[in-house]
Amino acid sequence: MMQEDYMKIMKKLLITGFEPFDGEQINPSWEAVDRLLTEINGYELVKLRIPVAFGEAAAKVIKVVDEIRPDVILCIGQAGGRGAITPELVGINLRNASIPDNNGYQPKDEPIVEGGECAYFSNLPVRKIAHAINVAGVPSHVSYSAGAYVCNDVLYTLLSHYKNTEMRIGFIHIPYCAEQNKEPSMDINDIVKGLVIAIENI
């Protein structure tokens, strides 16, 4: 097969991780994404680091989507307090922040999209993904709440923006990594392993 033909049939997956926030020096979502290979399961991975900022994070993703036209968007975020990798089933139309974002914005009970649907479901096979990660020995389960902070803001905005398209969109929350010295945590290598399995099961 010619190299040109190979490049034409490669699917493209945009995968995002967040910058650090809330006084942390690292964000395991980006640390894990950055460690992934650039090709997994027939997908060419395009990695994007996004800000912890309401509106701005999703806008940056949409801008890159318009430029590269991926087949799948998979966003990764940190969920402190969770001890497992948790694919998200649903994004809700709500901004409610217990701490300010990195721009100092702290919304309370505001809609993400004025007059928008209450919620949208991910169109990735989240149950299949969680099961496969568990089978591989990494704790995982489906989550029914992405919260109301920037992670949910990104998930809901993307699902709303691309609701009448064939774009496949998902979000996976991961625990703290061990380097953050917080509990519960997970070794970064196990997080990476879980994300690889997730991509293999899209």
Structure characteristics:
single chain, 202 residues, alpha/beta, 6-stranded mixed β-sheet, two-stranded antiparallel sheet, 31% helix, 22% strand
How would you explain this protein's 3D organization?
The protein starts with a helix and ends with a helix. The mean pLDDT is 96. The relative contact order is 0.22. The protein has helices spanning 3-9, 28-35, 56-68, 126-135, 150-161, 188-200; strands at 11-18, 39-40, 43-50, 72-78, 86-87, 90-92, 119-121, 168-174, 176-177, 185-186. The protein contains six helices and ten strands, in the order H-E-H-E-E-H-E-E-E-E-H-H-E-E-E-H. It is 31% helix and 22% strand.
Radius of gyration, CA atoms, in whole angstroms:
16 Å
Number of strands: 10
Helix content: 25-40%
- Assembly of the depicted chains: single chain
- Count every helix, treating DSSP H or I runs of 4 or more residues as helices: 6
Structural class: alpha/beta
The overall average pLDDT, rounded, is 96
Enumerate the strands of the largest sheet in spatial order, edge to edge or round the barrel: 2-3-1-4-8-5
Q: What is the fold's blueprint, element by element?
A:
Blueprint: H1 3-9, E1 11-18, H2 28-35, E2 39-40, E3 43-50, H3 56-68, E4 72-78, E5 86-87, E6 90-92, E7 119-121, H4 126-135, H5 150-161, E8 168-174, E9 176-177, E10 185-186, H6 188-200
Parallel strand pairs: 1-3, 1-4, 4-8, 9-10
Antiparallel strand pairs: 2-3, 5-8, 6-7
